[in-house]
Write a structure and sequence with these properties.
Strand content: over 45%
Helix content: under 10%
CATH topology of the largest domain: SH3 type barrels
Order of helices and strands: EEEEEEEEEHEEEEEEE
Distance between the termini: 50 Å
Radius of gyration: 22 Å
Oligomer: single chain
Largest sheet: 5 strands, antiparallel
Structural class: mainly beta
């Protein structure tokens, strides 16, 4: 059980039958009355964020969450992942993956969050290395202009890259912002 006095950013609680993460909280002590804790909560299943208030001393149970490192295998009508320890395969839908699908490539290790045995979220590494599949050709001297051009990557995402990059080059992408970081040698 977690009491409101133990709230901190990133803590996870069971609230209204679903796991929630505390994004922010403020402790308010009124004159004679009890304390009120105002929180900003994120539903880990739906991803919705909302504000709620609780009385001081309220208790919440901890959700049954488990994080597993899994390997992305392939995509057909589902995205298939394999547990690195038990070799058990788990298929996920496009909705369960969310934005993580833009950065997946075969054999990539990802972290999957399970709630009561069901997958609810996929976390890809902060930086991924992907090959450029299609882009306009680069020309000698293009590096001085400092501009950018669109490039289609092997995972299917299109990002802006500098003019000097060509098809087949491998680049590093920040998965939080989908931005080009650097060319991998």
């Amino acid at each position: 059980m977690i009491s409101t006095s133990e709230f901190k950013k990133g803590a996870k609680i069971e609230y209204k039958g679903a796991p929630h993460e505390i994004i922010d909280y403020q402790h308010h002590k009124m004159g004679r009355g009890g304390a009120i804790i105002r929180t900003k909560l994120k539903n880990l299943i739906t991803g919705s964020i909302f504000d709620d208030s609780f009385k001081g001393g309220e208790k919440f149970s901890t959700p049954n969450l488990e994080e597993r490192t899994m390997q992305y295998l392939y995509k057909d009508d589902h995205y298939h992942f394999m547990d690195n320890e038990s070799y058990e395969q788990t298929p996920l839908t496009l909705e369960q993956l969310g934005d993580a699908r833009k950065f997946l490539k075969e054999n990539m290790a990802v972290k999957i969050l399970f709630y009561s045995g069901s997958p609810i979220a996929v976390e890809v590494p902060m930086f991924v290395e992907l090959a450029i599949v299609k882009t306009d050709p680069g020309f000698k001297g293009d590096t001085a202009s400092g501009g950018s051009k669109p490039a289609l990557l092997e995972s299917g995402i299109t990002v802006k890259v500098p003019f000097h990059l060509n098809e087949g080059d491998i680049i590093k992408i920040d998965t939080r912002t989908s931005d080009y970081i650097e060319r991998v040698k």
